[in-house]
Amino acid sequence: MIGYRNYTDGAEANYQYSGLRRAQMAAQNFTAENISDDIPLIFTMGVHSEQYIDGVTNNYIDGPHRRRAPTWSEIFAQGNIAIAYGAKGFMYYMIPTRTTTPDQDIDYKDTVWNTYGLFDEVGNMYDTSHTTSSGKIQNPAALQIPNSRYNAVKAFINSTNLIASELLPAQMD
Q1: Which of 42, 47, 93, 139 is deepest in the core (most CB within 10 A)?
Q2: Is the Cβ–Cβ distance between 36 and 69 less than 8 Å?
Q3: How far apart are CA 17 and CA 88, in angstroms?
Q4: Same domain membership, residue 35 and residue 47
Q5: Is 173 a member of any domain?
Q6: How many structural domains is the chain composed of?
Q7: What is the residue-wise DSSP string for 119-164?
Q8: CA–CA separation, 85 and 71 (whole Å)
Q9: Does 132 or 23 have the greater pLDDT score?
Q10: Does the pLDDT value for residue 168 go beyond 70?
Q11: 160 in the same domain as 116
Q12: Which domain holds residue 24?
């Protein structure tokens, strides 16, 4: 997908800026004077963790599929690299924490895929060190509160205010 031109052979329309390289080129071409030919790059920051939970032991299943949560510094690095390549906005994957309790059927206990985002259940925060069982399974109906990744994202976005006038000129007609 780095240099992918189109989803149909030879066509010039619709998906002409598919792929990371095309998105970067389009973002760096952004001009406030003539926005009709520009496609601003909106970068999706990875701010989550993904884990398999074993239905028998309720423990994390180790392996290459595990995705640890990014550190504060890694969230800032993602954002600053995106700005360096011309990003004009940010989205976040994954905002809520979505966890499931493995099926407790007598004959079968399911293995589940859980995603931990910017908010966690109050009193049951996801433990990014994996040294405790804290937050493995959360109740989405319970009160949700911001976690450390949320605070890192908020601090990063606040840090962009210092350069926002250069990044996003207010010259939109």
Answers
A1: 47
A2: no
A3: 16
A4: no
A5: no
A6: 2
A7: EEETT----TT-SS-TTSS--TTS-EEE-HHHHHHHHHHHHHTTTH
A8: 21
A9: 132
A10: no
A11: yes
A12: 1-39
Q: Which residues contact 95 (CB under 8 A, 6 or more apart)?
A: 117, 118, 119
* Segment 30-39, tens digit of pLDDT: 666 776 666 6
Assign 77 a pLDDT band (cuts: 50, 70, 90). very high
135 and 64 inside one domain: yes
Domain-located, residue 32: yes
Whether residue 2 is found in the same domain as residue 87: no
pLDDT for position 151: 96
Rounded alpha-carbon distances, angstroms, from residue 168 to 89, 90, 124, 126: 9, 13, 39, 35
Are 34 and 67 found together in one domain? no
Concatenated DSSP letters for 63-78? STT-BPPPPHHHHHHH
Q: List, for residues 30-64, the tens digit of each pLDDT value.
A: 666 776 666 667 788 889 999 988 888 888 888 87
Reduced to 3 DSSP states, what percent helix, strand and coil does the chain have, rounded to the nearest 5?
25, 20, 55
Query: Are 8 and 80 contained in the same domain?
Result: no
